Amino acid sequence: MLFETHAHLNAKEFDEDREEVIARARENGVSTIVNIGFNAETIPTCMELAEAHDFIYAVIGWHPQDAKDMTDEHLEWIEELSRHPKVVGLGEMGLDYYWDTSPKDVQAEVFRKQIRLARKLDMPIIIHNRDAHQDVLTILKEEKAADVGGIMHCFSGSWETAKLALDMNFYISFGGPLTFKNAKQPKEVAAKVPLGKLLIETDCPYLTPHPFRGKRNESGYVRYVCEEMANIRGLSYEEMAQITSDNAKRLFRLSK
């Protein structure tokens, strides 16, 4: 019943027990996983995972931290791979002003190019935004990203930022930090987002939810995000699982 909208199961942290982690996700009620490939190294392994498991889908794109390495040939490669039936979106793309690994102007140009490609292909986009709220929103608006919409992944912004994203046809996704006791702002935003625009994720192996904080995250832990979201909204776990699953299926155009 659970739809995990953002995982990195092809990360090296899972090299020793990847299939066991995937099996545990199924045991924890995860019916569908969207896995992310975000650079030259991770896109091929992301595609391999999607082809190996019928319930795992791929999103491919270029992470802002790696923006300086992206070429026009990479963009053409992403466009070609996007025709694969298991590819359901482009990303994760956006801006990251926390890690100083690619110049801001290069990040912005790579971000714009990917939005334009998504509009050409009519595919939703997954947004990575770290310490760059205003610039992300400006680029989304200028590049008419509302035409395709997508996900504000692992949302950490204010309600004002969320409202602007919602107005541009974006869903708001929450991960492990929602479960932290000191996560006042995420809980406040999660309480206000329309139910039809809520999503859940893990971003595993990162951002592990309570009570496993500090350990490696995995897709099965999305249940703890769902539980917290249900508590915040005054709904049952089953109701929240159904709502977020239906939302994800609608966004990614998956019927099953």
From TrEMBL:
Which InterPro entries does its entry note?
DNase_TatD-rel_CS, Metal_Hydrolase, TatD-like, TatD/YcfH-like
Q: Which UniProt keywords apply?
A: Hydrolase, Metal-binding
Alphabetical list of PROSITE patterns matching this protein: TATD_3
Which taxonomic lineage does the organism of this UniProt entry have? Answer: Bacteria, Bacillati, Bacillota, Bacilli, Bacillales
Give a GO molecular function annotation for the protein. Answer: DNA nuclease activity
Q: List, alphabetically, the NCBIfam families matched.
A: YchF/TatD family DNA exonuclease
Binding annotation for a divalent metal cation 2: 128, 153
Asked if the keyword Hydrolase belongs to this entry, the reply reads: yes
Species of the source: Brevibacillus reuszeri
Q: Name one Pfam family in it.
A: TatD_DNase
Any one of the GO CC terms: cytosol
Q: Which domain of life is it from?
A: Bacteria
* Name of protein: Hydrolase TatD
Residues holding a divalent metal cation 1 = 6, 8, 92, 203
PANTHER family per the UniProt record, alphabetical: D-AMINOACYL-TRNA DEACYLASE
